[in-house]
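Incident review: delayed structure delivery

Summary: a single-chain prediction request sat in the queue longer than the usual turnaround. Root cause was a stuck worker, restarted by the on-call engineer. No data loss occurred. The affected request and its eventual output are reproduced below so the record is complete for anyone auditing the incident later.

Affected input:
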Amino acid sequence: MSKRLLIYCEGQTEEMVVERLIRNHLSMYGVKVERPVLAATSMNPAGQRGGFVNWEAIRFDLIGLMQIDRDPNLRVTTLLDAYAMPQAVLALAGFTAPVSEVKDIEKVERAIEQELKDPRFTAYLQRHELEALLLADCDALARVFHRHQSGLAQLRDAIAGFGNTEDINHGATTHPSARLADAVEGYEYLKASNAYFVLAEAGFEVVRRKCPRFDAWMTHWEQWGVQR
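Output delivered after worker restart:
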């Protein structure tokens, strides 16, 4: 029986990264990554998807997905941003304000797992958001966005002190995607394809060296894939 992994994604950016990069990578470790599912935003099954905004809808959706597919070789995980997560999710772990420290994010992840109560489920929240991975390789950014060297030079200087790009500030104007939007004019209009092109150019090895939580998440699924 093949080992199957379903990744529940925040939006189209995560979906494209899963479909075009993570799927191919994990296939080398014996893991079949299923077609990703975008986060539900309402209780309507046919409603709009994409966005970590409605915890009750996401909870209902995830439970339903695992009830429908009882395969013991299936694992389900999330690829959701810790930045601006719903207050209802924070409350599961007893928080009343946004969190950014690793220990607090991990506490929220464990609380989500306890809420869903399925041993096949592993919660993962990207600190602070997926775009932190892109900031791990400024050279790749410069090659992809070669017409925006001035803005990217300023971005490089601004984040030079961050050995771990997952540490980059999660403030309203300084979270990773806001920094990219400032450096690259029009970046936000093609966020999904932009993220894919940069990560494909950078390669996982470079990204994982500067993004330890993402690296640990990927390592977990690699190890699961090769286990007998």
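Verification: The mean pLDDT is 95.
Action items: add queue-age alerting; document worker restart procedure.
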